[in-house]
Amino acid sequence: MAVIGVLALQGDFAEHIKLLETIGVEATEVRLSDDLRKIQALIIPGGESTTIVQLMDAFDLTAEINRLVKEGMPTWGTCAGMIVLAREITEDRPKPLGLMDIRVRRNAFGRQVDSFEADVSVPVLGEKPFPAVFIRAPAIEEMGPDVEPLANLNGHGVIAARQGNVMVTAFHPELTQDQRFHAYFLSMVSGS
Ligand code: GLN
Fold first, then answer.
1. What is the CATH number of the domain that holds 88?
2. Which 3 state secondary structure label does DSSP give 43?
3. Site residues for ligand 1, CB cut-off 6 Å
4. What is the domain count for the chain?
5. How many percent of the chain have pLDDT more than 90?
6. What are phi and psi of 41, to 5 degrees?
7. How many other CB atoms are found less than 10 A from the CB of residue 93?
8. 170 is in which domain, residue-wise?
9. How many CA atoms lie within 13 A of 81 on its CB side?
10. 174 counts as catalytic
11. For the whole model, what pTM was predicted?
C-alpha cells in the first residue's frame, strides 16, 4: 500500500497524518531528503509559507521535491502548501516552486481574525457540500488552461484545483472530520 508523506517542517502536518491514519492509510513525516525515498505521495500542509520554503531549502529538500513532483508524484498543497506549489505569487516572498500553473495571492481573505468556515460544493466529492475551513487563506488569481477547478467560493473564484498529479486547496480539510478530500487524494495516488 502507498505511503503518504507529509512535509513536517512547520505547520499543521500532524493533523494530516492523524486524518490519514483514521482512514487506514500509512502516513509518515518528511523532514530529510532520505524520507522522500519512502513515500509515494506528498502533502504540503498549511502553516507559514515563507518559513516552509526557507526550511525546505535549509534541509536540502527543494530540488528533490521538484524532481519527484515533475516526475508525477501525487502532491497536494493545503493553504500555505498551495502557495509553495504555485507558479507565481502576488507578493515578493516566498519564492514558490512553480509546480502548478496558478498565480496565488497570500492572505487574500483578510487576517487571522477573519478565518471562517464555508460549506462549498466540490463536484468530485459528490453532492454533499464540504465544510471548508479558511485560515488566512490564499486565493487563486489566475490559472493556466491545464488547471481543472475543483471548487469555487462565491465572489472569490477557484479555491481548489488540480493539474494532473498536483492538487491544491486554499482551505484545510485536515481540520475537519470530513475525510472525503483525503480519500480523493488517495484515488490520485492509486491512479483510479
Ligand atoms: N497566510 C499563510 C501564508 O501566507 C498561510 C496560512 C495557512 O496555511 N493557514 O503562508
1. 3.40.50.880
2. strand
3. 46-49, 79-80, 83, 106-107, 135-136
4. 1
5. 93
6. -160, 160
7. 12
8. 4-190
9. 31
10. yes
11. 0.96
